[in-house]
Q: What sequence folds into this?
């Protein structure tokens, strides 16, 4: 295998090209982004997510736990995967009670808990923000809150602060300083439960990722 | 006139595709739906025009500094812990992938959708090495079960309807019940693949955009299988064509919007997955190793010509396929190569040489539907016209496309020379037109006229030429 | 120019063809003066057509060059709308090519045939008594295919149709 040479060969071929000046770069138009009020952003985000079959609850910050418990009580779930070392994790631990599915902490490397990750019914994560224009949550997995939490459980519950809803993707990157602080291992935009239209373009939800996405927007 | 081999193969494929009524119905309704969804999302044509000018500008800015950006990408990725490999050919890329798999003793590979891997024929190659490469995108999974290749770059199994898929699942998946309910078919696939995601040794994916500024690989998907392949196994290998690089993180949002909107009319996909490094210290999941394979495979040759370079602007949205009256009637397989439709017709002859795929450039009426919807304004008709010229350019090739002049024949060269002479000599043209109006009805039905009259009546010729009519009215046309 | 594709060549292709040549400026001036007929009638001459014909149902074929390169379909339809007794029934896939494509029709005869055959089906479905267009290439293709299937739906160029309607023939 000549991969060391491949790099040099490819780059030198690309560099060897005389600038004809015929391949020009058109001026980029400046496109005014969406500029919605706080309420409009919440409303738009909710609508866009709902179109994609997410369940959205806009609730007062002190009421959301009650709503979460109500939701969980109506379902027979074998557990709720959560991240204990996050503020959200602490809140959940303090509020947990009888009759709710057991809280299952994600604290071991995936190699040690693969089986349970792939069989647990639900997972709950925080979010770093959201995008009103297209309807999407921003997830920023971390040491405390790993990546698979929002992927392997059939039900993904996401908690979002209403303050963190941006107009556009570009605005989120800019205002949250993604470049300045450096990109983490993984960033995700999530706009609903997993879906496919690969058979006759018939849209169906719940393929390989979560079948349901429930979003709590905290006012 | 003897037919070149590519032409003969294509004609056979076309006859087969056109004769398949089921295929034509499946495609027709699917393409109409996709076009309609796109139109609804980009209903504001002025805003769309602005957005795609931005998209074109971003892609051209990236391509105009391609070697620098690729080096920057490599440097940033390496700093982030991603291992970068370069491959001049598909064979080299396959060897790189195999080497990684061997080092990890991998026998089960789970794959997210990747057209570059199709271009490499990676699955076939790995199978020969005794390694299972399982497609996990539902559409790809379906066609892999049937031993087929994708017929569309976005919806690979679009040529099949649910009845066909129902039979396929029932026959090929152990214990799968027969069902034509789409939800149930999905559930069968989900059940089958879940175990594979849990136990896969290595995940392979494509790349939609690679950000040079941060060393970030971006993946667009709806199903979650891409996230599975890039998160669950201990090793992730990402494959990209060298044109996929963009300069800045802020280049991503407009391209993402153009990509998902053009492809399926969605404002955004369910998942947009941005990967910047392998698992970092203390993290509980994600692959320990991430590899990026940067593939040339003919792209640097396309890059060399500033007019052909526009081909590399493509972000693989598939809108040109959905809107192409020819793709809509043939489907992807008839083209005979990995990339079908208008993008395939301009890309493939340049990647593989005209002598192998030049016929694809003739599969267009120059109707311009592809150009009209292209989110990065690729000048399809210009490139197609140039490729057709190159196919006949024996000595005087301007663009040096590999295999140029392969269709050159003295007869055709002579006919076009005569045509040029006829049109540049008023006297000759006048005589010619008069001859046609007098004797046109008696032309023998051979050559082009024979093809024409297979489904049409012969063209009528006016009893008098325009010149004659004008002269009758006292007009003098020589001024 | 009574043709979308001819006008397209003269207006848009010529400047490209002559780019960098000594004639470039002259060609540019020439091309800037090119109008497709219906655009010229509406935009420059600002015509008002008086319909003197019998009521008729027609359908319209948008040639690709008229539609995309020249973008003059709104003018052509504006002319038809001025004709009071003409009812326009639009084709189901009006924006789709009829399959002519010049040499395409004889180099890819099978695909071309499939396309024009679908176009004819759409035409039949409108129940129109006539097919109008601004491009003779398309009309040649469509009329040939209509004739081959023995369908008595005449095709006609828009200019001819307007002349006929405003002069009260038919």
A:
């Amino acid at each position: 295998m000549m991969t060391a040479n491949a790099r040099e060969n490819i780059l030198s071929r690309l560099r060897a090209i005389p600038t004809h000046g015929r391949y020009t770069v058109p001026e980029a138009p400046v496109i005014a982004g969406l500029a919605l009020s706080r309420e409009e952003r919440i409303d738009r985000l909710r609508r866009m997510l709902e179109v994609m079959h997410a369940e959205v609850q806009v609730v007062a910050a002190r009421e959301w736990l009650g709503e979460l418990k109500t939701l969980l009580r109506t379902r027979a779930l074998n557990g709720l995967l959560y991240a204990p070392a996050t503020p959200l994790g602490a809140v959940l631990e303090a509020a947990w009670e009888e009759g709710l599915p057991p809280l299952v902490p994600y604290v071991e490397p995936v190699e040690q808990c693969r089986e349970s990750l792939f069989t647990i019914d639900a997972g709950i994560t925080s979010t770093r923000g959201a995008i009103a224009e297209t309807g999407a949550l921003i997830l920023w997995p971390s040491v405390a809150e790993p990546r698979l939490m929002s992927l392997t459980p059939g039900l993904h519950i996401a908690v979002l602060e209403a303050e963190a809803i941006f107009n556009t993707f570009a605005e989120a990157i800019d205002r949250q300083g993604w470049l300045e602080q450096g990109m983490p291992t993984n960033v995700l935009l999530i706009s609903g439960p997993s879906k496919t239209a690969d058979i006759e373009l018939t849209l169906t939800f719940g393929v390989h990722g979560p079948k349901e996405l429930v979003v709590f927007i905290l006012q | 006139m003897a037919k070149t081999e590519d032409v003969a193969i294509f004609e056979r494929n076309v006859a087969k595709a056109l004769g398949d009524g089921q295929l034509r119905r499946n495609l027709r309704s699917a393409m109409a739906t996709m076009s309609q969804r796109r139109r609804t999302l980009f209903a504001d044509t002025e805003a769309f025009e602005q957005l795609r000018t931005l998209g074109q500008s971003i892609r051209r800015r990236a391509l105009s500094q391609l070697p620098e950006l690729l080096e920057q990408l490599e440097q940033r990725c390496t700093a982030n812990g991603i291992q970068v490999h370069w491959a001049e050919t598909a064979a080299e890329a396959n060897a790189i992938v195999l080497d990684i798999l061997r080092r990890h003793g991998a026998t089960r590979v789970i794959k997210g959708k990747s057209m570059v891997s199709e271009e490499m024929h990676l699955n076939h190659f790995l199978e020969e090495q005794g390694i299972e490469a399982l497609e996990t995108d539902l559409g790809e999974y379906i066609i892999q079960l049937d031993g087929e290749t994708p017929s569309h770059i976005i919806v690979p199994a679009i040529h099949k309807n649910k009845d066909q898929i129902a039979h396929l699942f029932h026959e090929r998946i152990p214990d799968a019940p027969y069902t034509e309910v789409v939800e149930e078919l999905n559930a069968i696939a989900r059940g089958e693949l879940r175990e594979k995601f849990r136990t896969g040794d290595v995940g392979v994916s494509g790349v939609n955009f690679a950000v040079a500024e941060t060393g970030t690989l971006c993946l667009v998907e709806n199903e979650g299988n891409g996230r599975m392949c890039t998160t669950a196994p201990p090793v992730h290998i990402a494959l990209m064509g060298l044109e996929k690089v963009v300069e800045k993180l802020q280049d991503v949002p407009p391209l993402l919007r153009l990509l998902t909107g053009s492809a399926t009319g969605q404002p955004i996909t369910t998942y947009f997955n941005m990967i910047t490094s392998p698992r970092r210290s203390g993290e509980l999941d994600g692959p320990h190793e991430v590899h990026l394979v940067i593939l040339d495979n003919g792209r640097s040759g396309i890059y060399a010509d500033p007019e052909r370079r526009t081909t590399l602007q493509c972000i693989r949205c598939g809108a040109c396929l959905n809107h192409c009256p020819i793709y809509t009637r043939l489907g992807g397989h008839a083209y005979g190569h990995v990339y079908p439709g208008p993008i395939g017709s301009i890309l493939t002859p340049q990647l593989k040489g005209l002598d192998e795929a030049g016929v694809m450039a003739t599969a267009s009426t120059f109707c311009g539907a592809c150009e009209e919807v292209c989110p990065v304004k690729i000048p399809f008709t210009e490139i197609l016209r140039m490729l057709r010229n190159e196919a006949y350019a024996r000595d005087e090739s301007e663009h040096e496309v590999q295999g140029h002049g392969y269709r050159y024949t003295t007869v055709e060269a002579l006919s076009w020379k005569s045509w040029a002479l006829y049109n540049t000599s008023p006297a000759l043209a006048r005589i010619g037109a008069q001859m046609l109006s007098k004797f046109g009805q008696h032309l023998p039905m051979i050559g082009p006229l024979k093809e024409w009259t297979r489904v049409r009546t012969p063209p009528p010729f006016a009893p008098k030429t325009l010149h004659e009519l004008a002269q009758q009215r006292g007009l003098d046309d020589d001024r | 120019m009574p043709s979308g594709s001819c006008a397209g060549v003269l207006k848009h292709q010529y400047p490209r063809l002559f780019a960098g040549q000594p004639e470039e400026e002259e060609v540019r001036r020439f091309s800037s003066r090119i109008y497709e007929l219906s655009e010229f009638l509406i935009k420059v001459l600002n015509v008002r057509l008086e319909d003197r014909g019998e009521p008729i149902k027609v359908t319209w074929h948008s040639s690709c060059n008229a539609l995309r390169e020249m973008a003059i379909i709104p003018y052509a339809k504006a002319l038809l709308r001025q004709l009071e007794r003409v009812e326009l029934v639009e084709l189901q896939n009006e924006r789709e090519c009829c399959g002519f494509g010049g040499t395409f029709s004889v180099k890819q005869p099978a695909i071309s045939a499939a396309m024009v055959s679908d176009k004819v089906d759409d035409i039949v479905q409108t129940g129109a008594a006539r097919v109008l267009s601004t491009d003779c290439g398309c009309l040649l293709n469509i009329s040939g295919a209509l004739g081959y299937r023995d369908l008595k739906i005449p095709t006609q160029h828009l200019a001819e149709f307007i002349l006929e309607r405003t002069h009260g023939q038919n």
The radius of gyration of chain C is 17 Å. The longest helix of chain C spans residues 109-126.
